[in-house]
Design brief:
heterodimer, A: 4 strands, 2% strand, B: alpha+beta, 28% strand
Chain lengths: 469, 178
């Protein structure tokens, strides 16, 4: 009886809308039988996006995108609202998962040569979606409207200002005026909540349509190059012979992987939560050390490690060049071998990119180039004196900011060389030259030290040598 | 009543020149009307969004303290409100500057924004240096670049003494100074 009613309803809906038939046919479209676990990252990215949509909508019920109130609503969400802490965590780790999955998906597609004929536009729309994802990540970080967010907007505006001709206008637009203020947050809210999601929905739709149109690429085999003249026919023959319906033969892996990802995100959200809010978004609080979220730390590292003076070219041309290379890739190479075994340069490109980004990420996380403003005066046990020139020199080493950038017995900053044993490698005259004249990353102290202070500082530095028994 | 056959709705070889011309006209009418409708909606929406491109806020003098509250030779952080903050700006309407009293009647106001990427530089009084927390840029007490990536000196804001008050002219974040 129940089944009969169900069938009647289904037939009626099918007749009036035609949707069940379309959805059924779409779900059961044939995919290569050996497209297995390597193929789950695309759907995982979409799954992460849906987590963002759901958690984002929920958060929007309490978040007030006003420069004066966003901070307090974030505190309310984090500390008082039921599940608020968890939802913020979901949104944060969901964003992280989305960035991670889109990266993995892209690497897999590149390594499998799936961007080649006839899937050039699948790749191009994917590249745009990567850009949208990163933009969502950055604008989302700004909606966490604390001190870090405010300064991140300023840093972003500074970078955008480097664009030739229209840079100043763009920076002005980014800030929503001359300074960070009432108009700044609302525009990032509109971009994050309306504009970018609309683009993502549209391009995900187009991306999926292209996947259906051209089919899921078969795992590559060495010696089976793509020939645009024969590829479509061969692919259709392959599907006819060994293809499997996407639902459920292939879809179950996507579902299992997505659910696994959701569980991991939920566990992280529950136990660790979203990043703590920083100080209030008051641009007049000068004690700030703005840092991007983890997925842009590598870029933070790049800007620190580039040779001085070249940053402005990198900031403008780097993203443009990366965009051109990524978008142009399938149009430069849309035929030939797909197997990574026959494309060592493709494997090398992925490995180099991963190693480079990981290295820059670690550097960005440690940020040794940033002075340590929390460096405490060296203890007598490290100094080895409680009075006299060595002791005074150690005090000056702290007071003059040397300790902000130099390590002594694991205390201080890491911007400059470790001076724990400096007397073993520099003579007194070399020290004087260095202190007085400075260097690329060190200010000249000639005008900042009296002769007596210089003598005391030298006494301290000359006492920094290997302790031999 | 005879239902129209959708098969005949498309422009086919059987369509007469008069029909073609009518269809062309209707197509163009639809496109033109759609364009006008889109313009009516887009112009105010885009204009509203892009307004900050063309707005220039007024600059006004803000008092940051009495002259005698600043010691000669010292550099102090001063806070003031932007020129015309929006009512809902809250604490984001605040700005800051580093104010150096050079002698009895001379003050210099430095931007707090590093010329590298705009991070807020800190003043190390005993060292006589400004230091940036982001990428380690350093400036001397007169604002000139001393070390690290900053491409230019710390920008200065206009400062004056009026009726015993030290006043700073509110200015945009000095993004355009590089």
């Amino acid at each position: 009886m129940v089944k009969r009613i169900f069938n009647l309803v289904r037939d009626w809906v099918d007749d009036r809308t035609g949707l069940p038939k379309v959805i059924g046919e779409t779900a059961r479209h044939l995919v290569p039988h050996d497209a297995k676990w390597w193929y789950v990252f695309g759907s995982a990215t979409l799954c992460a996006f849906m987590i963002q949509v759901i958690s984002g909508i929920a958060l929007a019920f309490a978040y007030i995108p006003s420069a004066s109130e966003a901070y307090s609503t974030l505190h309310f969400i984090s500390d008082e609202a039921p599940f608020g802490h968890f939802l913020r965590g979901l949104h944060y780790y969901g964003a992280s998962a989305m960035v991670l999955m889109v990266g993995l998906h892209m690497a897999q597609v590149f390594l499998f040569g799936s961007y080649k004929f006839p899937r050039e536009l699948n790749w191009a729309t994917g590249v745009l979606l990567l850009g949208f994802t990163l933009l969502m990540g950055f604008t989302g970080q700004l909606l966490r409207w604390d001190q870090n967010a405010v300064w991140s907007v300023v840093v972003a505006a500074e970078q955008i200002a480097r664009v030739p001709f229209i840079g100043k206008l763009l920076a002005h637009f980014t800030l929503g005026g001359d300074t960070v203020g009432g108009a700044t947050l609302t525009r990032f809210f509109a971009i994050h909540v309306f504009i970018m999601p609309a683009f993502i929905f549209a391009f995900v739709g187009l991306h999926l349509w292209l996947v259906l149109r051209h089919g899921v690429s078969e795992p590559p085999k060495p010696g089976h190059p793509v020939d645009p003249k024969t590829y479509r026919r061969e692919y259709q023959e392959l599907l006819k012979k060994t293809g499997r319906p996407f639902w459920p033969d292939a879809a179950w892996r996507d579902v299992v992987f997505c659910v696994g990802m959701i569980i991991v995100i939920a566990v992280l959200a529950w136990f660790f939560g979203a990043p703590q809010l920083g100080k209030p978004p008051d641009p007049s609080i000068i004690a700030a050390s703005p840092r991007p979220d983890w997925y842009l730390l590598w870029y933070f590292g790049v800007l620190a490690l580039l040779p001085h003076g070249t940053e402005k070219y990198f900031m403008v041309f780097g993203p443009v060049l990366a965009g051109i290379i990524l978008l142009g890739l399938p149009f430069i190479s849309n035929r030939g071998e797909r197997s990574p075994r026959r494309r060592p340069w493709a494997v090398a490109a992925v490995l180099i990119t991963v190693v480079m980004m990981a290295t820059l990420w670690v550097a960005g996380a440690k940020s040794p180039w940033s002075p340590n403003f929390n460096a405490q005066p060296l203890t007598p046990s490290i100094v080895g004196a409680t009075n006299g020139p060595v002791f005074i020199g150690a005090q000056l080493f702290h007071d003059k900011g040397c300790l902000n950038c130099h390590l002594v017995a694991d205390n201080g900053g890491r911007r400059g060389p470790d001076l724990t044993e400096v007397a073993d490698r520099l003579s007194k005259n070399q020290m004087i030259l260095k202190i007085a004249n400075g260097g690329v990353n060190m200010p000249a102290y000639a005008a900042n030290l009296t002769p007596a202070e210089m003598d005391a500082l030298l006494a301290f530095l000359q006492s920094r040598k290997v302790q031999r028994p | 009543m005879k239902e129209p056959n959708p098969e005949n709705a498309s422009i086919g070889p059987s369509s007469s020149p008069a029909e073609l011309s009518r269809r062309k006209f209707l197509a163009r009418l639809s496109l033109a009307s759609g364009g006008i409708g889109a313009l009516i909606l887009a112009v105010p929406a885009v204009g509203f969004v892009l307004a900050p491109f063309f707005e220039r806020k007024q600059e006004i003098w803000r008092s940051v303290g009495k002259v005698e509250s600043f010691k000669i030779g010292e550099t102090t952080a001063v806070k003031y409100e932007d020129a015309s903050p929006l009512p809902w700006a809250g604490v984001t309407a605040r700005s800051a500057a580093w104010l150096r009293r050079v002698d009895a009647g001379t003050f210099i106001a430095f931007s707090i924004n590093c010329t590298h990427l705009g991070c807020p530089v800190r003043w190390l009084a005993k060292a006589g240096l400004f230091m940036c927390p982001c990428h380690g840029g350093v400036y001397y007490q007169d604002g000139t670049a001393a070390a690290g990536p900053p491409p230019s000196p710390l920008p200065r804001y206009q400062v004056r003494v009026k009726n015993g008050d030290v006043q700073i002219l509110t200015s945009p974040i000095p993004i355009s100074k590089k």
